[in-house]
Specification:
CATH architecture: Alpha-Beta Complex
Order of helices and strands: HEHEEEHEEEHH
Shape: globular
């Protein structure tokens, strides 16, 4: 059964908590620009109101980040994310999406955040949910497989992500980026609390 919040099944979420730990739950509200709302509505029409975001930490401590074509010249990179197709287990979706976006096969290590976002559009507010994990690469070459969706993949350190990149996101005027800046900072706060 899907939770009242969206299309994430409570039973599946409970299994992820059992396997990867209890995430911190946060709420965020963001005014989305018209084109951002259209993207969310398109995803909603396919039966999805969630994403799975993975901060992939390499052995050298750097994080694998992606850039999409629509923000290729902004200097903005972020943790890769994607969603499960109907009937696809969330963990399988996370591994598939990370491979498609980064070329890496990953292993989830910690369930860090369960974020609920109110996407505020002119006509209505859409409930979104982000399940945020720490992951580690186990195989592959860092190179996007889905080159239509992903423009670039690189690595950044924590300071870049919570500092200059988060500031670029907040200054962009995009609601989605304001949310991603919040998500990134909260992720690293929780990582410190867990000492992982």
């Amino acid at each position: 059964m899907a939770s009242a919040l969206n299309d994430v099944k409570d039973e599946e979420l409970a299994l992820l908590v059992e396997k990867y730990g209890e995430p911190v739950v946060h709420k965020f509200v963001a005014d989305f620009l018209r084109f951002e709302c259209e993207l969310v509505k398109r995803t909603e029409s396919k039966g999805r109101l969630h994403d799975i975001t993975c901060f992939i930490r390499r052995d050298d401590g750097l994080f694998v980040v992606i850039q999409k074509p629509q923000y290729a010249r902004t200097g903005i990179y972020r943790a890769p994310s994607g969603g499960a197709t109907p009937g696809e287990p969330l963990e399988d979706a996370a591994i598939r999406e990370m491979y498609e976006e980064t070329g890496l096969t990953v292993e989830l290590t910690h369930f860090v955040l369960d974020l609920r976002l109110d996407v505020v559009c002119k006509d209505r507010t859409i409930p979104w949910r982000s399940l945020v994990f720490m992951a580690r690469p186990v195989d592959g070459e860092m190179k996007p497989v889905d080159t239509r969706e992903i423009f670039d993949v690189t690595t950044m350190n924590r300071e870049q992500l919570v500092g200059e990149v988060a500031k670029l996101m907040e200054d962009s005027g995009w609601g989605g980026f304001k949310y991603r800046a919040f998500l990134t900072r909260e992720f690293f706060k929780r990582v410190d609390e867990l000492n992982i």
